[in-house]
Amino acid sequence: MSEKNMNVLPEKRHMGLKASRTLANTSIYILLIVISVIWLIPFVCILLQSFRVESTYQVGYVMPQQWGLDNYRNLFQTDFPRWYLNTFITALVTAVLQTVIVLCMSYTLSRFRFKMRKPLMRFMLILGMFPGMLSMIILYRVLSDLGLTQQNAVPGLILVYIASSGMGYYVSKGFFDTIPKSLDEAARVDGATRFQVLKKIILPLSKPIVIYTILTAFMGPWGDYVFARYISFGTSAGMNVAVGLYNWLNKDQIASRYTMFCAGGVLVAVPVAVLFMCLQKYYVEGVTGGAVKG
Amino acid sequence: MKKLLAMALALVMALSLMGTAFASDLAGTYDITIWAAENAVELTKKQVEDFNASNELGITFNATVEPVSEADAATQMVTDVEAGGDLFCFAQDQFARLVQAGALAKLGVRAAETVTANNAAGVVAAATSGDALFAYPLTADNGYFLYYDKSVIPDEDVDSLEKIIADCEAAQKYFAFEMQTSAWYLASFFFGTGCVSEWTTDDDGAFISVRDTFNSPNGLIAVKGMKKLVDSPYHLSSSSGAEFAQGAAAVVTGTWDYTTVEGILGENMGVADLPSFEVDGKEYHLGSFNGCKLLGVKPQVDAVRAAALHQLAQYLTGEKCQMERFEALAWGPSNIAVQQSEAVQANPGLSALLAQSPYSVPQGQIHGSWWDIAKVIGDDVKAATDEAGLQAALDNYYDKISSLFNLDTSALLFVGAWNGWNNADDTDTFYFKDGSLTLDVPESDYMGGRIVNPGDWGTDKGFAQVTVGADLIKDLGADNPDNNIVFAEAGNYTITLNGEAIEIVKN
After folding, report:
1. I need a labelling partner for A276 at 20 to 30 A (CA). Which of A190, A202, B52, B448 fits?
2. What is the ipTM of this complex?
3. For strand B360-362 and strand B288-297, is the pairing parallel, antiparallel, or unpaired?
């Protein structure tokens, strides 16, 4: 009896495990598919609407009756290219400068020991607790006096975005802290300068965090609405895409601009999507695999 | 050093004043910014060039025309008045806000006379705060009327709300009338039964009093009519002409949707004034708001520049430019001469608006909070199950208005009874401004009146509270249950409220 049972039982359990795993996986996949469909529907709708040429207002169906590129063509008759360029310049310059500042800041706070280090970090922590919106009015005043609003909104916005970027060091400093100091010390013994340590040792080891910093620095200005609207107010030449496109949703314009709005939305999504696709592999790549070996 | 500086400054000031005084010549080139609706940008540019070419004062404007929605102009403007457009178009509901923000320059006496003489009275009232004009009327078409699909609703049915609802239900098509999200449209029912909500502003654009009769027997009739509409399964709370593409057979909206609706319905498009509704066997024609767009001039540091800008503003809102705007954009004119031109009369959208105009109420100055308070009525009415529920919706509205505006001293009014109590045309109604008012009491049998609360018309205070000037009024003693103030003789009086006490002085 015991022999028989012993033969059968493990077999049974094994089958059950496999079946339950398949079942769990299937249900998880179904759930994920449902969620991603729900999540993707608005994007697909916008994409389809942007190709609809039979009418320009909102309609009750998704599939266009006539397909065409008129909406995209018409975009170039408006101020859209200007807005796009404004946004792109702002985002690009901000991405570069902010990344440099954040990485330098993180490296300094992670590796250097100086008297005001702790007080400085605490001070920035407290500063960061205030909502950024609080400073909006005074920042506007300052920029307005410097002549960096309205048609000069782009340099004004870049200034605002990078001015406080030093405070966003937390994530990358935390990451740098996990890289063993012995690496630095080894490099220093071999005669490397502090900057060489950062450039040749730390940065290559922290690609994911560098990419993350670039991405967030790019995305912030790319999608900003509130501050950009405030700075560029009433001046089409200084607007970014979010502000310009949103104006098309006004009551008097939506009927003639809705499909163009969708086309604009699609074009806005393109660089971000490309950026993510190009940089995604760095996310997937192992983080510090084997770094300590050397 | 300081003294020297002060003297220099004084000198500069004196010189600049002299400059102003002697600047009869406006000739020169001015760089200006104009904010106009996106579709009017090109036309505005052309009109400024026409002005440059045609004016005899030697003024040349280098105008940058920025597309800024009229619905959004005040929000943009108050962000930073200094950096805002020199001339800007805006919908009239933002007027009080702009006056308060100091974003509008007062019109000169002559400009005001011209504007008053050439434009429809309701539109002039919309540009007036206190006694002064602050803006130039641009259009008078910000009202709504009925668009319908002729294939669903026969022409003979468009006069009746009930028939339209029935037709829509039979065809399983929607009747779009924005009842739940917009006080602008919802007020239609109240105006239909003769209710009013009138606000008074002073020279600074501040609201000083309100006369509101939504919470009244007529208001109850209005919500009963509204109940019929919102209870229909085929009622849609929307005011977008594009609804016709999504199964609507009737939409209440304005001229801005004309091309959209025409594009969708083509031959089947019909336009008409709003229908009537029936309550307890009586017909009430739906009323409407009749609003306008205005052109404002930003206050300028340089008086010469300001005068030149006013010249341009006058030109842009004059007969010629309004006609051009009608031809190019189908904007309904506020200029009386253009309104009466054949072309305007023949435009279907504007003619429907014109047919609605006997029932429409000029949209005067309305407090910004009113829109949010009043729009709740729509939801409350939909939720109500019986007459008590409908009355509760009105009570709720009234409570909010009165708690917000503290309708005591500043909003009280004196109603004179010398022509009888029936004061519908408002002639014998006097509003307290800063707690006092001056009135002429004519010789009549009953030279009395009472101080009432504008919401419920109940007596607030009167005879019993008079502390100063008791000798000027008749002592009615116990025969005066309504606490009326009855003057002993005709004349000009000033009534001042001093806390709970009333002081009367004969002038």
Report:
1. A202
2. 0.72
3. parallel
Find where tokens 């996986």 sit.
A25
**pLDDT tens digit string along B16-68?**
444 443 445 788 899 999 999 888 999 999 999 999 999 888 899 999 999 88
Beta bridge partners of B63: B32
Tell me the β-bridge partners of B478.
none
Residues A109, A28: one domain? no
Domains, chain B, ordered by start? 23-140+291-362 (3.40.190.10), 142-288 (3.40.190.10), 413-506 (2.60.40)
Low-confidence residues of chain B: pLDDT under 70: 1-24, 404-412, 421-427, 431, 433-434, 453-460, 477-481
**Cα separations in angstroms, B476 against B439, B443, B462, B488:** 21, 19, 12, 11
Contact criterion met (CB < 8 Å) for B79 and A250? no
Test A236 with B66 for CB contact under 8 angstroms. yes
- Nearest-CA distance from A179 to chain B in Å? 48
Q: Which two tokens stand for residue B451?
A: 């101080």
Tokens representing B92 are: 């009239």
Three-state DSSP state, B371: helix
Angle (deg, nearest 10), helices A207-223 and A153-163 = 140
For residue A139, tell me if it sits in a domain. yes
Give the whole-angstrom CA distance, residue B369 versus residue B406: 14
Domain that holds residue A133: 82-293
Give the Cα separation of B226 and B222 in Å (integer): 6
Q: What is the number of structural domains in chain A?
A: 2
Specify the pTM. 0.71
Where is B207: in which H helix or E strand? strand B207-212
Please tell me if residue A131 touches chain B, with a CB cutoff of 8 Å: no
